[in-house]
Amino acid sequence: MVGEIEIIYSQNFIDYVDELTLVLYRLKYFSFIESSYHYTDKIYDFVDENIDKPISRQSPKAFQKFGAFYMKYKANENTTWYIFFDRRDNRFLVNHILNNHTGIFPELFLE
Hints:
The chain is built from two helices and five strands; from the N terminus they run βααββββ. It is an alpha+beta fold. α1 packs antiparallel against α2.
């Protein structure tokens, strides 16, 4: 099929999101574990639906170790996720994810 995309999630990304699901529930951001899973499932949905759209940007040099490109996913009013990936033609490798609460990448906010 022409134009079909392939998305591969690195084990690092999968492990992080899996742990995030549990942490959000343990810290009582969500009352039910199902709600926490729903929150993290929406991250995957966003990637699946948007990774081939022209919303991604080239990663700043300091963050290229996470991937050549990144895209922003605004999960809610307080949290924005930065999803880093590499691309070759229609194949995408999703490598890493950070959010605005970590405070380690202010240059991503200068867009």
